[in-house]
Amino acid sequence: MSPVDTTRLQRLARAYTESAVFYAAIDIELFTHVSAGADTIPAIAAATGMSELNAERLVTVALAMGLLDSEDGRIVNAADCEKFMVKGGERYAGPWMTFTRHEVPRWFDLTEKLIDPAPPTELGMYDDLTVERARKYHAATYSIGMGAGRRFCRQVDLSGRRKLLDLGGGSGAYSINAVKTFDGLEAVVFDLPPVTVVTQEYLEQNEVGDRVGTVGGDFINDDLPTGCDVAVMASNLPIYNAENIQKVVQKTFDALEPGGEMHLVGETLNADGVGPLDAALWGLAEIHYGSGGRSHSSAECISYFENAGFVDVENLDFVPNTLTRTFGRKPA
Ligand SMILES: C[S@@+](CC[C@H](N)C(=O)[O-])C[C@H]1O[C@@H](n2cnc3c(N)ncnc32)[C@H](O)[C@@H]1O
Asked: Which residue of 36, 45, 72, 328 is 20 to 30 Å from 291, comparing CA positions?
């Protein structure tokens, strides 16, 4: 057995430095410059405006973090940075990677938040949402959601389905991909009223406005659109407590056509509630927004579906160690 030492704890105590390095690298467009051919310290310094000393310091850490690689003495991007972190690229995910950057100071006030007696609100971060805030928020979710939407359409065969209900659909990323992938499918994005203004912009940009509509409302308290034979609810889980997730799953079951199916995609804890860390942290992050939400386990997700009346219920990997997809079918 290896001796117990402080290495892991020391690393945790300074883990925030890794986020800071990643943000700085995004700010100075390190990956974009490397992709464009800046493959030495002097070239990176010249392209970014850093001194050679600072370029060397940053590159040394980025190599150690696996953000950059060294190939025959040349500096290159790691595969994920080349694919997702090069500005101007179709898959550029910079807005999503810095999506929670404004939360940094709040995380360092966590101790006070943990003992704050203020009761949670139902909508948390979505209370008092404006179109402007929704537009900024969904620039980030779109940059990652389109990839998730494409993945959903690779994993789930919606051939023969007629209408998709996209609950909390945001930018419409899932609906856009679904109607482009499956002939004859239509979709409706149901989201808070200020968001649907932004959804329309993405639908027009993707030229699917004739096949995807929007309905503004609150899926916890308002009636859901009927006439749909498939429903997806993606990336909403930690915002709500068990009671509200159960409520929306039940309402979806009731609104779906007989024989319809529902997919709940989200950051999910393992069945025993232990890990993965990312799912646990998304639940804790809700403390900053004042919602009553928390992380949910795969076993809980299965029970929400079974309690609602869905059959053939299963919880599957969507993005391993990050997101799961709970599936259920409404009996015909
Ligand atoms: C993280 S975004 C995910 C968007 C989209 N599903 C995706 O994966 O790209 C969560 C979305 O759920 C919406 N939402 C949260 N609570 C809602 C509620 N009670 N009623 C309707 N929409 C809600 C938010 O406005 C936001 O657009």
From this structure: 328
- Assess if residue 102 is contained within a domain: no
Rounded to the nearest whole angstrom, what is the distance from the C-alpha of residue 166 to the centroid of ligand 1? 9
Tokens of 265: 């995609």
Whole-number Å distance, alpha carbon 310 to ligand 1 midpoint, is 22
pLDDT tens figures, 53-103? 999 999 999 999 999 999 999 999 999 999 999 999 999 999 999 999 999
Q: Does 44 contact ligand 1 (Cβ within 6 A)?
A: no
DSSP string, 190-250: EE-HHHHHHHHHHHHHTT-TTTEEEEE--TTTSPPP-S-SEEEEES-GGGS-HHHHHHHHH
Mean pLDDT of 151-173: 98
pTM of the model: 0.94
Host domain of residue 270: 107-329
Report the number of distinct structural domains present in the chain.
Answer: 2
Instruction: Say yes or no: 126 and 189 in one domain.
Output: yes
Q: Which residue's C-alpha comes closest to atom 4 of ligand 1?
A: 170
**Same domain as 246, residue 209:** yes
Nearest atom in ligand 1 to the alpha carbon of residue 234 is 6
In this structure, how many other beta carbons lie within 10 angstroms of the beta carbon of residue 214?
Answer: 22
Identify whether residues 43 and 73 lie together within a single domain: yes
Q: Can you give the pLDDT at residue 292?
A: 94
Q: Is 266 in the pocket of ligand 1 (CB under 6 A)?
A: no
What's the pLDDT band for 160 if we cut at 50, 70, 90?
Answer: very high
How many other CB atoms are found less than 10 A from the CB of residue 243?
9
In a domain? residue 98: no
For 5-51, the pLDDT digits (tens) are: 999 999 999 999 999 999 999 999 999 999 999 999 999 999 999 99
Q: Is residue 93 part of a domain?
A: no
